[in-house]
Write the structure tokens for this entry.
Amino acid sequence: MRQLDSGCDEALAVADAVNRELRAGERAFIHLGRTGRRCLTVDPATGGGQLMVRQGRFDGYVRLTRDGSEVYLNAPAPGSATVGRLLDVGRLLLPLGTFRTPLADQVPHAGEWRNRDGRVSLESVATDPVPLLSRLAEAAGPDCAVRTLAVSEVLGEQVFADSTGPRGQSVCRGAEVQAAASADGGATVARVSHYAADLKRIDLVTLGRELALTAAALGPASASLPGSEIGFLPSAAAQLLRVLVSALLFNPIAEPRPLCTAVVDDGRTADGCSARAFDCEGTPTGAMELVTRQGEQQAVATRLNSVVGTGGRKARSLTGHASWEARRYQPQPTATNVRLAPGGAAPDLWSGERCLVTDVRSLGVEEFRSGGQLALRLLAARAVDGVPTGAYAPLVVEGEAVDFLAALTGVGETASYHPGPFSVGGAPLSMDLSRLSERNEV
């Protein structure tokens, strides 16, 4: 089978070419990253498979500095033969640039880092996909038909090089299982995916149950939500956490509230889709509580921007949260791999009669109008011992990010990470809607 090969040497060759083109008094910092995917698509009906490999291409930026001025140069798919022209453009722009003193002295990551050793093997699945398909179908149940299945190896790579000497490499390999299904022969298709560092770390039983419940929630509503206690499937919990963290990066928590959990941001967690040793500025990543159990938000900072914490507290040093934003021509603060720490009453989603949320969507207009106030639409299914028995009418719940965190009554262990602008871990959640300021049914 075709393999997904590392290209860090190719990216570092571009950095060497930049250094050769520099003139006296000039300094350059270059960061390049890419994501590749090797995907095996399996036909559930026949067991046949088709392999597709996309190596991806490196892109990033060059920061050129001279005589107290600096300029960021967008570098999509740079090559050793074209960096000279890129630097010539930068020299024309340097008089318009200004030198910006970093928040603190930067101590860059050095050397090579990997989240795991070796490749993710798809060969066993390609040779005999029946065991995987059987486990997934059994967990989904007889009323849920699996339509498509894709098993992927994902490769994320980053390199940075400073013309003064420091350079680093970061390699992240992981596995993703994506499945689509419909319930009771319906035409509406539900899609669910799980990601981890290796296929063996993906729980196919949980994935199959989520798939069946997600498909059921897309059917016609048979009842309104009874009471205020609800559960969240891991995939829906990841959607919720992504919305909350995105809001917190723009509207930090002003008034802390006691929580049963903490929001953890860990750049080097092995199972994270965005696991990496350093950010786009070369600053080492690590684990921190973005929001503590006391409901206080911690600050994050890049060379040019920062997000203050609760009480307006600023970060004392760079925190490893910079992400290159090509449209703005400068790095922006972001999250890396976020998850909720276990806490509260351990949620059991698979016993008894439960209302289980399968999908969370932000109604963004409300958020922009109210400056931090979120309106989220929830889709939910009725389940008895984890088996779907119908769909509830959609809900709209409202509050600030800290209100939603304070409404959580239980958080389980992280079941899977999910890709996006930043990686998000999903875990079984339980929530008391009566703790939110408003709840509307639609």
User: Anything to note?
Assistant: The CA atoms of residues 194 and 416 lie 5 Å apart. The chain has eight helices and 27 strands. The chain has a mean pLDDT of 91.
